[in-house]
Fold:
Amino acid sequence: MIFTILITIVFIAELIIGFTLLVNLLKIDCKINKLNQDLLLIQPSLEEICGLIKAISFQIKEMADEYRDEILKKREEMSVRLLSKIFAGILLWKINIKLIRKIRKSKITKTLAKGLTLLQIMV
Structure:
């Protein structure tokens, strides 16, 4: 008798669990169907949005390539300007050294130097 009561209790518990699972599965099925309908309604809009995103990303890629090319050109121009300034500085420095040597060897400089030394001695 006790065994029959226990089996009955377990059977009723299994029925309750099964009924609960069935009700919950039906609720989930209704939600999934509603979500599917919403997605079917939104699908054309999603396709348009995806197309716009694709076009925008393509334009950004093109702009990035142009910007990279522009930066490379500016860097090359800056390096050419820097090298030309360096070479011009070296050239002027060499010219100045030769010019200073010529001035030191000239008679006018020697005369001025003698006059300045005489002036310095007098003062």
Summary: Residues 2-105 form the longest helix (104 residues). The mean pLDDT is 84. The chain is about 100% helix and 0% strand.
